[in-house]
Write a structure and sequence with these properties.
With 765 residues, the chain is α/β, with parallel strands linked by helices. It binds beta-D-glucopyranose.
């Protein structure tokens, strides 16, 4: 009897299973109709790899979606991002084999290449590794605007300028998605500080939001179609971005025309039905009570089924694009092609390094070298947090220089190596190295004058590396992170004094996660190379640039100010705030909107005057301007032209390599606009950029850079539209915003108004 009942039950299940539609690209509405409210409420709430009852992802997996075999819906896997696939450090499989992925150069370096092709190549490498690790989506690119140099996650992001950020992000996205993996453009929007990141309120006017903080995303979305956009943790003008219908539906979907899926950021849980209504489609790393909350809200009428149906539809549209769906029998090797990607990491890293200063000492020929600074022996490849990559090795600068035939001072080498391993152990013991948050930093070793004098006797040149790291959930601090520390200053001063007295040169390498103060010491060394956080092949790439194998062509994606307090809004940032509660709200949410300023809320008092927009408009001197970067050759600009062709502005200029060695040149097009109906506008704004191919000495390339006429517009908040002014614009040619190589007038016979939703039309999806 019992057996009969069981048979009947299984026949009924089988019948109901076969009655369910099986998901394919063309029947998503049918599947959504067939799913129960509970199933849909489960579908839109994902889970972390730690969730019980499901096959966990690999250690380090960001999250997964719920599978529904009865509808042929697989679980899809989302992994961090953005500088490589993030596995849990030291992860060994059941057979004891260690697994690694490639640590590519970090975001700032990618943007500093001013080269979309470099961003795409890195994207392709990361996309391949995403698939090889069995994931469907990489949680990147990170593309928040660099509002303040102390944001702990700046290294993941691209620039203080939305055009550079948006276009580089798009190129990265296109690169990843060519491989069949998906991306997540994050964090939308105005997520410009880590302190109190879950509950901080970014307060700004609408023009600032439109012209800067959503602008990069807008540009990114017209040049690419990221599968997902990740909404940020913070509030924007008093409303959580994840609960903001205005931001997620009106701006993102209606105005920017975004068609993909919107996913939450991971930790802070908001009001689930409100989020669904606002435009969130997928809750990550979800929690079961969110599903319950959705169901209860449907029942009490505070949530409409159409919002849940929309979200479920977006999840299924994402699922059908995923590898898990398209290639269900694909067995990921869990071993990415590290050998193939190492040269890619090396090549791309060298392309984004910026030569800040060179008094003729670089390039170096192999010589006897005194190599100072702990980071010369213990390079920082990347930052911490979601962007941490557990890579197989890091090429150290000392080893790379030796490979090039440099003869290093063995005494210094062994001293620094011992110090580096001691400092590592000390950090692990006393500061709990935590790869998910913060910025554990090794202090610089104090080297006696006597030791420097001894090293000088045996060397032809000195190289000093200074390092800074940072990570998620903590901002950098003015005194500790931005300014050099006493031992660093002493090292610089003493090495420069001793080596210069002997007629020998000193080179400084900056292995940094973001801007540091340079103005008080940059007169000391003969050359300064900004190598950023260059990934696992960093040592090789730095050596490539130092020796001239690669001619540097990187350009700063942000300004290096003379002084922190020269930046606009310097006081409106928690620049000296120290907290142990790194990953939590430092202020209770109930106190939201109340003091303390810069923690609970941050006023973006500088408005649109961020970075070079501020420095140029106020006529302030800087240490190194946006777009600065030297080369071992020089370039001439000739035949600049600019004209309006239909609804585009086309600027052309011939760039000729006028120097002795091959090189590449980054070209920017900046525009100064007449005021029109606006009381103020920035002195100059970047509108387009590009990079030449490698030009041999004497060789020329005509660079044609174009952009829509509507990109000349400013945002009129009162009328909620973009406006171009009639009159004479000035168009500047050259990457360095403060020293254009050429300029031309451009006349617009009449001004135009552009509705918000037309301000962004797809040009290259
Ligand atoms: C970070 C995201 C990341 C996510 C998943 C969050 O805390 O802000 O950038 O993708 O965690 O790890």
């Amino acid at each position: 009897m019992k057996a009969k009942a069981l048979l009947l039950a299984s026949l009924l299940v089988a019948a109901s299973l076969s009655a369910q539609p099986k998901l394919n690209e063309n029947n998503i509405p049918e599947v959504v109709r067939a799913m129960s409210a509970r199933e849909k409420a489960l579908l839109v709430v994902g889970f972390n790899s730690a969730c019980e009852g499901y096959t966990p992802g690999l250690p380090g997996t960001g999250g997964l979606t719920h599978p529904f075999p009865q509808y042929g819906i697989p679980s899809i896997v989302l992994m961090d991002g953005p500088v490589g696939v993030r596995l849990e450090p030291d992860w060994h499989d059941g057979e004891g084999n260690a697994h690694f992925t490639t640590c590519f150069p970090t975001g700032l370096l990618v943007a500093a290449s001013w080269d979309r092709d470099i961003a795409s190549q890195i994207g392709r490498g990361i996309g391949e590794e995403t698939l090889d690790m069995g994931a469907d989506i990489i949680l990147g690119p990170g593309m928040n605007l660099l509002r303040n140099p102390l944001n702990g996650r700046n290294f993941e992001y691209f620039s203080e300028d939305p055009v550079l950020s948006g276009s580089i992000a798009a190129a990265y996205i296109n690169g990843v998605q060519e491989t069949g993996a998906g991306t997540s453009a994050k964090h939308f929007a105005a997520n410009s500080q880590e302190t109190n990141r879950l509950d901080g309120d970014s307060r700004m006017d609408t023009r600032t939001l439109r012209e800067l903080y959503t602008r990069g995303f807008e540009i990114c979305l017209r040049e690419s179609a990221p599968w997902t956009v990740m909404a940020s943790y913070n509030l924007l003008n008093g409303i959580y971005t994840q609960e903001s219908h205005d931001l997620l539906t009106k701006i993102l979907r209606k105005d920017f025309g975004y068609k993909g899926l919107v996913v939450t950021d991971w930790t802070g849980k908001r009001n689930t039905p409100l989020q669904l209504h606002a435009g969130i489609d997928l809750f990550m790393g979800g929690a079961y009570n969110q599903t319950e909350h959705i169901l209860a809200s449907l029942e009490d009428g505070s949530l409409q089924m159409k919002d849940l149906d929309r979200a479920a539809t977006k999840v299924l549209e994402l699922v059908v694009k995923s590898v898990s769906f398209r290639r269900p029998s694909f067995e990921p090797p869990l071993r990415p092609d590290l050998e193939a990607h190492a040269p890619l990491a090396r090549m791309t890293a060298a392309e984004g390094m910026v030569l800040l200063k060179n008094n003729g000492v670089l390039p170096l020929s192999p010589s006897r070298t005194a190599l100072f600074g702990v980071y010369s022996y213990d390079l920082i490849p990347g930052g911490n947090g979601a962007a941490f990559v557990s890579c197989p090795y890091v090429v150290q600068l000392n080893d790379a220089l030796k490979e090039e035939g440099f003869c290093l001072d063995p005494g210094l080498e062994s001293l620094y190596k011992r110090y580096a391993s001691f400092a590592e152990a000390d950090l692990a013991l006393n500061h709990r190295i935590n790869v998910h948050v913060g910025n554990p930093q090794k202090g610089e070793l104090e080297i006696t004058r006597g030791l420097i004098e001894k090293a000088e006797k045996e060397a032809d040149v000195a190289v000093i590396t200074l390092g800074r790291t940072s990570g998620e959930a903590r901002d950098r601090i003015l005194g500790r992170d931005f300014l050099l520390q006493e031992p660093e200053v002493e090292l610089l001063e003493n090495v420069c004094e001793v080596f210069h007295a002997a007629g020998k040169k000193v080179v400084v390498v900056l292995n940094i996660c973001g801007v540091v103060e340079t103005a008080s010491w940059n007169y000391l060394p003969d050359a300064i190379l900004c190598a950023w956080l260059p990934g696992e092949e960093g040592g090789h790439a730095i050596a490539d640039v130092l020796t001239g194998r690669v001619n540097p062509s990187g350009r700063l994606p942000m300004t290096f100010p003379l002084d922190y307090f020269d930046i606009a809004g310097a006081e409106d940032f928690p620049y000296n705030f120290v907290s142990d509660k790194a990953n939590e709200s430092v202020v209770h949410p109930e106190r939201r909107g109340l003091d303390p300023k810069n923690l609970n809320y941050t006023d973006y008092t500088e408005g649109i005057y961020v970075g070079y927009r501020h420095f140029l408009s106020r006529g302030l001197d800087v240490a190194y301007p946006f777009g600065h970067g030297l080369s071992y050759t020089s370039f001439d600009y000739s035949q600049p032209k600019v004209l309006q062709k239909g609804d585009r502005i086309v600027a052309t200029v011939t760039v000729t390599n006028a120097g002795p060695v091959a090189g590449k040149e980054a070209v920017g097009i900046y525009v100064h606009a007449p005021l029109g109906s606006f009381a103020d506008k920035p002195e100059r704004e970047l509108k387009a950029f590009g990079k030449t191919r490698l030009l041999r000495p004497g060789e020329s390339q005509v660079m044609e850079l174009s952009f829509p006429v509507r990109d000349l517009a400013s945002f009129n908040s009162a009328l909620s539209r973009w406006e171009t002014a009639k009159g004479v614009y000035t168009v500047y040619f050259g990457a360095d915003c403060s020293r254009p190589a050429a300029s031309l007038p451009l006349k617009l016979g009449k001004g135009r108004n552009y509705p918000v939703s037309r301000a962004c039309e797809p040009i290259n999806r």
